[in-house]
What we know:
Blueprint: E1 4-10, E2 15-21, H1 23-33, H2 37-54, E3 63-70, E4 77-82, E5 86-91, H3 108-112, E6 115-122, E7 129-134, H4 141-151, E8 156-165, E9 168-179, H5 181-184, H6 187-197, H7 205-209, H8 214-222, E10 228-229, E11 234-235, E12 237-238, H9 244-251, H10 255-266, E13 268-272, E14 279-283, H11 284-301
Parallel strand pairs: 5-12
Antiparallel strand pairs: 1-2, 1-10, 1-11, 2-9, 3-4, 3-6, 4-5, 6-7, 8-9, 13-14
Amino acid sequence: MADQLIRATAADGGIRAVGVITTRLTQEARERHHLSNLATAALGRTMTAGLLMASSMKRRGSRVNLRVKGDGPLGGMLVDAGLDGTVRGYVENPDVELPPNALGKYDVGAAVGKGFLYVVRDVGYGYPYSSTVELVSGEIGEDIAYYLATSEQTPSAVVLGVFVGASGVTASGGLLIQVLPKAARDESLVATLESRFAPLSGGFTPLMQTGKSLNEILQDLLGDMGLFVFPESQMLRFHCPCSFDRVLDALKIYGEEELRDMIDKDNGAEATCHFCNSVYQASSDDLHKLILKLKSESSVSG
C-alpha cells in the first residue's frame, strides 16, 4: 500500500480524523540512516506524528518541526514535516537497541528517556509558533497527545506504530482523532471515543496487519457517528531539499581564511546532511570559486 494520508470528519464536524500510512518513507529513513530496529520504530513514529500534525495547517509551505530530546541512549530526534506531505528526520544515536518492554514491543520510551518535546509550527508567514512540553512517556504518541491537549487545548487521541520484520519495515502509520471545541462539551461523546480507543493501546500496526485500509479502520471507529471521509487522499514521501548548491552556500559562513585552510589541508571539503545522510564533496576548485564569489559580494556590499 502506498504511503498516503486521508482526512475525515464525524459527529457533525465535531470530530476531526486523520489517518496515514508511512511504511515506505520509514523504510527509506531506515536505509538512509542505517537505523537499528528500535531507532527505526522511534523515528518512524515521530515522522508519522509530524505528518499528522502538519495535516491541519492551512497555508501552502506550512511545516511542523518536532524535536524529541530525552536522557535515554537514543539521544534525541528531529523531524521536519510539511503540509505538502513531505517529511525528513534523523536520530542522534541510530544504532541503539534495547530489550523489548513488558508488552514485547520496542522500548521506545526507555530509549528516549525523560526530557522534553519541542514543537515549532511555521505557518508560512510571520514568526513560527513554538512550544515545549515535558515528555509523558517517551513513546511519542502519548507525548504528542499531551502536547495537543495542553498547548493547543484540543483533546486528541494519537495512535502510532512501526513494525520491522526480517526484510525491513513492513508496516508503519498512525491515527489522529481530535474532538473540536464545539463537541468537547459533550461528555458522552468523549467517553464513547475513549472507550473505543482503549483497545488501540497496542499500537497502530496490528490494525494494518489485518489488511484493512485507512477508510475501513476509520469506519470501524467512527462509522456510526456520521463519518465522512474526504475523497482526496494525499501521497506522502521522505524528502530533503538539500543540494550541492545549498551546501556551498552554507560553507560561506567559514569565510575566506578557513576556506583556504580547507583547500591547503584537505584539498576540498566534505559535508553530510543530518536529515537525509547525503554526502557532498566540494573540490578545491569549488572552494576557489566560492572565495571569488565571497570577494565579489564583499565588494558590492562595500
